[in-house]
Amino acid sequence: MIVTRELTKRFGRTLAVDAVSMDVHEGDRYGLLGPNGSGKTTLVRMLLGLVFATSGEIEVMGSPIPRRIGQVLPEVGALVEGPGAYGHLSGRANLTLLDAAGPGRAAGPGNASRRKRGARRARVDQALERVGLAGVDDRPVKTYSLGMRQRLGLAAALLSEPRLLVLDEPTNGLDPQGIREIRDLLDELNAAGTTVFLCSHLLTEVEQLCTRVGVMDRGRLVLEQEMTDVRALTGRVEVRSPDADRVVALLDGRVEHRDGEHLVVRTTDASELNTRLVEAGLRISEIRAQRRTLEDVVLEITGPGSDRVDGTPADGTPADGTPADGKPADDRSIERFDGFRVEELGSDSKGSRDSGDET
Ligand SMILES: Nc1ncnc2c1ncn2[C@@H]1O[C@H](COP(=O)(O)OP(=O)(O)OP(=O)(O)O)[C@@H](O)[C@H]1O
User: Fold this and answer.
1) What is the atom index within ligand 1 of the atom nearest the CA of 51?
2) More exposed terminus of the chain, fewer Cβ within 10 Å: N or C?
3) Measured in angstroms, how far is the CA atom of residue 67 from the centroid of ligand 1?
4) ipTM
5) What is the whole-number distance in angstroms between the Cα of residue 40 and the centre of ligand 1?
6) What sequence ranges are listed for the domain ABC transporter (predicted)?
7) Whose CA is nearest to atom 31 of ligand 1?
8) 312 lines ligand 1 (CB under 6 A)
């Protein structure tokens, strides 16, 4: 669905993307994970033909990019660098304009035109409904919270019923409820056949949503794996027992770690261990085969010095003092891949929370 070969992008002396060879399969929910500044957005912008690569190749749905970008874009829904919109218009009006600007969508005179307008209204209604904005479509977008703008951006990406969704930090600005709703929506779209490719600096977001993961670190793709392989068994079983002392005695040297009632036992067979403990008359309140977490794997690869994934301070401000979105304060213009140039959203929209009052 997306293939890159040795894809590289330099901005002057900055090597933003460094020889990335990536492979996103049809039907994937692919999460590209990496700390701020690791090159995710630059890579996505190259995939969408917004930025030219310095070297390397890109194929999206079998077509070379940017050469065949015009052929590919109608089948791609994208949300990159924050959603853009005309602030003085409602969400519905914005979507209607966007839909009208889509390929083959211009309405002419007569019955055919009325049919097209009817179909457009239905598409816009459905997109608003899907992202949970159906009840607020008369308010101007400038009154929307960042979370609502994010949903509107997603609704725009869904208008064309895309085969591929490309989303840069899709849950940016959403509260936990909003994040869950977007996750459910992406799950649902993926189940219906849409390939989802998203960038995130949040481990948990990728771990919960994605079937395949790529990890970027300083411009390089340092891992690409199926999530089931990432979450491989460790050859340990975790046991919780009120009889922990007796478990330790019975297992004689196979308990690697103990913390109160919680024990980590070296074995690959949880059911055999369970049978043995129960037959010995020991009480077991919990037993499960231990799996690696995405965090274990990322830390293993990027090393203890690279703790920036999910590691920004609690106030969201990176240690180097740049704003929470990682962009210089004067670099916050909003663009859309389809050239639908829109009003800039002020920096005050960044970091605001989804008020949750849109329903
Ligand atoms: N237009 C540009 N001009 C110069 N340098 C740039 C430009 N765009 C990105 N960079 C630099 O390229 C590197 C990668 O940035 P990029 O935005 O792709 O990373 P990211 O992983 O998407 O980070 P974030 O999560 O903050 O968006 C950074 O060092 C950034 O400063």
Assistant:
1) 1
2) C
3) 24
4) 0.96
5) 8
6) 2-243
7) 37
8) no
40 lines ligand 1 (CB under 6 A): yes
Which positions ≥6 away from 189 have C-beta within 8 Å? 158, 165, 196
**Nearest-atom index, ligand 1, CA of 42:** 18
Q: Under DSSP, is residue 68 helix (H, G, I), strand (E, B) or coil?
A: coil
pLDDT-based confidence at residue 285 (cuts at 50, 70, 90): very high
Cα(29)–Cα(160) distance, integer angstroms: 19
Residue 217 tokens, joined: 């670190």
Residue 157's alpha-carbon distances to 1, 18, 120, 335, in angstroms, are 17, 28, 14, 14
Which of 46, 4, 285 has the alpha carbon at shortest distance from 168?
Answer: 46
As given in the structure block, the two tokens for residue 31 are 């999460």
Residue showing tokens 């840069």: 168
| Cα dihedral sign, 149-151-153-155 | negative
- CA–CA separation, 316 and 237 (whole Å): 36
What residue owns the CA closest to ligand 1's atom 8? 42
Binding site membership of 37 for ligand 1 (Cβ less than 6 Å): yes
Distance 346 CA to ligand 1 centre (A): 20
CB 44 within 8 A of CB 38: no
| pLDDT band, very low/low/confident/very high, at 290 (cuts 50, 70, 90) | very high
Burial group, residue 153, by CB count within 10 angstroms (0-12, 13-18, 19+)? buried
Entry pTM: 0.74
Label each residue of 83-107 as H, E or C: CCCCCCCEHHHHHHHHHHHCCCCCC
Least confident of 1-15, 27-41, 125-139, 255-269: 125-139
25 C-alpha vs ligand 1 centroid, how far in Å?
25
| Of 201, 139, 203, 148, nearest in space to 173 by CA | 148
Confirm or reject: Cβ of 160 under 6 Å from ligand 1.
no
How far apart are the C-alpha atoms of 151 and 201, rounded to whole Å?
A: 19
For the chain, percent of residues with pLDDT exceeding 90: 43
